[in-house]
Write a structure and sequence with these properties.
Blueprint lengths: L2 H34 L15 H4 L11 H14 L1 H39 L4 E5 L19 H10 L3 E15 L4 E9 L2 H5 L4 E4 L4 H6 L3 E4 L1 H7 L9 E4 L2 E9 L17 E4 H7 L14 E6 L5 H16 L9 E5 H44 L1 H9 L4 H36 L13 H27 L3 H5 L3
Parallel strand pairs: 3-8, 5-7
Antiparallel strand pairs: 1-9, 1-10, 2-3, 2-6, 2-9, 4-7, 5-8, 6-7
Helix pairs in contact: 3-13, 4-11, 4-13, 4-14, 5-10, 11-13, 11-14, 13-14
Length: 481
């Protein structure tokens, strides 16, 4: 090549390079001018002023985008897709509300059952006579055991771990008042029975030790018995004929919410008289009964922790008196309400855990929904991410924006869910509910568990989409359709 041709080739290359430089500069200035001018162009061809910051000229070593700018852009992005943001947030709101409400209902069920068990009696055990299944002391198996008032006295004197005791007579007889008649069960008990069986009066008084000592013909009416025998009439001091004997009504029991009973039915339907009066006037008439026979004996241990040792003392005393082995469970059947309460407590504890697990799973599914929506947002805004990166946005800026969007969705949803759950619990306390539906209890454990789960969702639901978005290169983004 001659010198003239070389010169022409060098000039051509320089000219082409200069032309490309000029065109690139013009394109860069045009893009920056379009975006900085408060009408920033995004991937879909619409104008969004919140993109303006990222479009400003930046040096590679510049400081990250201020948080208030990220927050402003995040809120603008969420507002642009209001319906989708709301539906995503609703999953979190419902999840936290479910945790608080379901756990509260489970605890409420447990508390209600404990209260109903207390209506039967406070840490009591009811002893019923049975039939021996083991030979003992030269006596063959298969004998009937019959309890008597002497057994109650022996337990009272010889069992130091028994706090109080009462024999109990039960018999259904006729009752006649001035206004109505009925045939209801009557129970004859010692005065101590009224306390550990949680009997309280709505009108009048309970019977006393003097009433028992004198065999006074006085009677307490259950709430249902009162409504039948004295419908809307004055009752205290009235004479009631019981099995043909005149008894004076001294009190009406408060209505009981009782989910269990023994013997002849719930307390609301019963009549209660002093043991000595009933033993004299109309004692039990079941087969094998004799003077002094009782239907059962009710005992109360000195403390719940010692109830097993106390019942062993009772079995030993009654075994010695009736010649059966204390280990023979068929000879003496004992209903231990404390064991029943523990069993129910375990059932409702497991039920509460189940409710909580289901609610937390619902909350976790809401978190998966947040992650899916964030991934969709990354896919939809790929070109926008590319433009921002091309104009100087760093990977940290992109990552922080998507993390902030995820955090705002979950934290706002969590706050609304917490307010909703607590508010519903408080509201249901003010609303009369059926007896079988408890009032929910606000559980600190449920609130803490839901908040911890929410924190985990905030981190997990936003981290992966944010990393995916920040890892995209401008070329990958801008070539996306």
């Amino acid at each position: 090549m001659n010198p003239h041709d070389r010169l022409r080739s060098a000039d051509f290359k320089s000219a082409v390079s200069a032309d490309f430089t000029i065109r690139a500069s013009r394109l860069d200035l045009t893009a920056r001018a379009l975006i900085v001018s408060q009408r920033a162009i995004t991937y879909d061809g619409t104008f969004h002023p919140h993109c303006a910051y990222l479009a400003q000229p930046k040096d590679r070593g510049s400081t990250p985008m201020p948080f208030h700018e990220i927050l402003k852009q995040t809120l603008a992005a969420l507002w642009e897709s209001k319906l989708r943001s709301f539906l995503t947030m609703f999953g979190i709101i419902w999840g936290i509300t479910s945790v608080i409400l379901l756990v509260g209902l489970g605890i409420g069920f447990s508390i209600d059952q404990k209260e109903h068990m207390k209506s039967i009696g406070t840490d009591i055990a009811i002893c019923f006579a049975g039939k021996t299944a083991m030979p003992s002391g030269g006596y063959a198996a298969g004998r009937d055991v019959t309890l008597n008032v002497g057994d109650a006295i022996a337990i009272q004197q010889l069992a130091p771990l028994i706090k109080t005791v009462s024999p109990e007579l039960q018999r259904t007889v006729s009752e006649v008042s001035q206004w109505n008649a009925s045939s209801r069960a009557v129970r004859g008990v010692w005065p101590e029975y009224q306390r550990f069986r949680s009997l309280s009066v709505e009108q009048g008084r309970l019977f006393t030790a003097d009433d028992e000592a004198n065999g006074a013909r006085v009677v307490l009416l259950g709430s249902e018995s009162n409504r039948q025998l004295y419908p809307g009439k004055p009752v205290i001091g009235q004479t009631l004929m019981i099995a043909g004997y005149p008894y004076i009504v001294i009190g009406v029991l408060s209505n009981k919410k009782q989910n269990g009973s023994y013997g002849s039915g719930p307390d609301n339907s019963q009549l209660f008289v002093p043991f000595s009066a009933m033993e004299r006037d109309f004692p039990p008439d079941f087969k094998g009964a004799f003077p002094g026979t009782v239907n059962n004996i009710v005992v109360q241990p000195v403390s719940p922790e010692l109830h097993e040792a106390a019942l062993r003392q009772v079995r030993q005393i009654l075994g010695d008196r009736h010649h059966f082995d204390p280990l023979d469970l068929d000879a003496l059947w004992v209903w231990d309400t404390l064991d029943g309460a523990k069993f129910l407590d375990r059932i409702f504890h497991v039920m509460t855990l189940f409710f909580g697990a289901v609610a937390l799973l619902t909350l976790a599914l809401g978190g998966i929904g947040v992650m899916n929506i964030m991934l969709v947002a990354v896919s939809e805004r790929t070109r926008e991410i590319g433009v921002r990166k091309a104009l100087g946005a760093t990977a940290t800026d992109i990552r922080r924006q998507f993390l902030t969007e995820s955090a705002i969705i979950t934290l706002v949803s969590g706050a609304l869910g917490l307010a909703s759950g607590v508010g519903l619990c408080l509201l249901l306390r003010l609303v009369p509910l059926p007896d079988f539906v408890p009032h929910p209890v606000i559980s600190t454990t449920a609130v803490v568990a839901s908040l911890l789960t929410l924190a985990a969702i905030t981190l997990s639901a936003g981290t992966y989409p944010a990393l995916r978005a920040s890892g995209l290169t401008p070329i990958e983004c801008l070539k996306t359709d």
